[in-house]
Structures are given as structure tokens and as C-alpha cells.
Amino acid sequence: ATRRILVTPTLSVLPSFGFLFDIDGVLVRGKTPIPAAKTAFQKLVNSQGQFVAPVVFVTNAGNCLRQEKAAQLSQLLGVPDQVMMSHSPLRMFKRYHDKCVLVSGQGPLLDIAHDLGFCQPITIETLREKHPLLDVVDHDRRPNVLVSVDLCFQVLSVVLFGEPVRWETNLQLIIDVLLTSGYPGNPYHRENYPHIPVLACNMDLMWVAEAQSPRFGHGTFMVCLENIYKKITGKDLKYEALMGKPSKVTYQYAEYLIRAQAAERQWQHPIHTLYAVGDNLMTDVYGANLYNRSLEENSRQGSKSWVQLASAAAAHCRSVLVCTGVYNPHTEVPLDTRASIAETVFHGHRDFRFEPALVEPDHIVPDVDAAVDLVFQLENFAPY
Description:
- Pfam families: Hydrolase_6 (PF13344).
- This is Haloacid dehalogenase-like hydrolase domain-containing 5.
- By secondary structure, the protein is an alpha/beta fold.
- 32% of the residues lie in helices and 14% in strands.
- It has ten helices and 15 strands.
- The chain has helices spanning 35-44, 66-77, 109-116, 124-130, 167-179, 218-233, 248-264, 281-301, 337-342, 368-378, and strands at residues 17-21, 28-29, 32-33, 55-58, 83-84, 100-104, 120-123, 157-160, 198-201, 206-207, 215-216, 241-243, 273-278, 316-322, 363-365.
- The strands form four sheets. Strands 5-4-1-13-14-15 form a six-stranded parallel β-sheet, sandwiched between helices. A five-stranded parallel β-sheet has the order 7-6-8-9-12, with helices on both faces. Strands 2-3 form a two-stranded antiparallel sheet.
- Strand 6 (100-104), helix 3 and strand 7 form a beta-alpha-beta unit.
- The protein is elongated, with a radius of gyration of 23 Å.
- The two termini are 40 Å apart.
């Protein structure tokens, strides 16, 4: 008889993988931690308060400073600072940093812009003060006295950080800037197309907080802006760059941060696989699968990416879907593309094509704790 020898895979204490965690709906709901998150990070953070594997928190939030979001997450879950905001990749867009840019959103917008490297940001509110005749939807805010208009500056690009508070004011003034080549208050010149550059962060149509149903996200504001622009001009609003999940540049920057973290900890194993854990089919799963496709194409073609450090780029980006946020396991995504668009099932951004394969997660788990267990099992990883 043939003697069979069973070989047990060797458990690794050094990580060859990294985690990309979404925050809202995965780790917290609003300001309330999801219980499974605390259990998960008991496994991911060692007794010295360090991660046992590279971790980046990739959030589509964009209306606060990165340091503020990191401090909030650390207070709620006691985790080290490895937060990446939807606007973080704007650090790489240096050609806009010395230009006058109009910034839209809420929170400390000027602080955010300066922190990213922008030297001449101007807010919607400042623009409104300089051109008080432009904002007239709210009758109570209309100026009582006509004032002279300051035309001494030109807006050279628009940066959309996140959903603003007064949508009508922001929509009006952004349209004014786009249709006047950066001189709001001037007559519209629709022949100036394409318009000045627009850079947008966070395309989430909806997001989950404490309410029982998802709430409007920045993606909803962008839908309004795009449709108003097209209704007026008959042409599509164009973006110079789209950031935040599911954009490729966001995952490139996240991988760069994963590699930098591994290098700082002097982990010798190349980072082979990224595990993107999220709650949203149209951002987290779509983005991870889209980036995985890009990694596989790069591998076949032997192309290089700016995210690479000394070692080779990751080979795979795997999507792990949790059921504690936007995702509803009882809702099916139709396979027919045309039908799904007609029924408004595709909640992704206008510029991202719907493909059933891209919203099919590699793994579905109940919560983030189960996600960590799954990855440790798949990687034969035992850090202790």
C-alpha cells in the first residue's frame, strides 16, 4: 500500500498581504463603533499598539482633515493612524497647487486644501461675498444694496471635496465659474468648452449613518451638478480627475501607503495581495475588482506603476463584502446591464461603466471580524 504523507502549510508570522478597510458601515455607523470592529482589531493590533499586518483605512469622506478623521477613529477603536481620505491623492496633483482653485464642501476647507498643498484656495462663501448678486435662490440672503463686483482674479480649477451644506448656492456658483472660464459675474460663454478643470473626490451616491436608510452622499450632489450643466449647455461636464473609491488612482495611492508601512516596519515579504473590506457594491467591491483587473493587466504586460517601491506591485486585490452597512444581502443585482441602468440599480458614478463582474465580491462575510478571520485563514497567517 502507498503511504500518504499530509503536509500542513507553514504558518507565516510575516505578512505578505495588506488590508484596505472602509470605515462607514464597516467599522462605525456615524459615531457608533460596530461591535465586530473592536473584536477584529484585538487580532490586528499587538500589545505594543502596532498593526500585525499593513493596514490603511480608505474612506470616501472628504469634508475634514485627515488628522481629524484619524483621531476620531483612534478614539472610537484605539487603532494607529493609517487613514487615507478621498482627497489624499490630490497631494500628487502638484500642477494645480499654485493656481487659484475654488473649493466646495464643508468643514475646514481652507485647512484641508492647504494641507494637501494648494496655495491659493478660495471657498464658495468667499466667492459669494465677492459676487453677492449671484446667490439669489434664498430671498432672505439677497443683497439689499447693489455693490460693485470684484473681477481682479480668475478661478483656474474647481475642487469638489464633499457634499456642501447649501446645495443651491454651491451649484449656482460652480456653474457660474464653469460657464465664464473662471470669471463669475461675467456673461456666460458656452463656446468655451471644455471648461476649466474639475477635480472631484468621493463619488458615493449614498452612505450609512445612524439612520435606518442610507443618506445622500457627495455623489448625489455631483449628479445634480452634472445634470444642471448638461441641461444648460447640452454638453457633458468633464472631470480632470475622480478620486475616492472606486477610482484607480485611489487604490494606487492606497497601495503606495501599504508598501511604505511595510518598509517602515522592515517586513521583508513582498506585499502580494491586497484585501479591500467594504460594505458598498458600487464603491468598495467595484473599485477593488477594477484595481485587481488593472494589476493583472500590468502583470501580463510587464508595465510599471508609480506606486511601486523597491519590490514589485501587488499581484491581486481581493474584494471582501460585509453586511453591516449599505449592502443588503436580500437585494440582487440584475445581470442585464441595460435593465439595471433603466431600473437605476447602478448607483456608481456616471463615468464608470456598469459590469456585473465588477460588483461580484470575492468573499461575502457577516462583519469585519469575520473578514479578518477569513484573510488570516487564506494567508495561513499567525502573527503570535
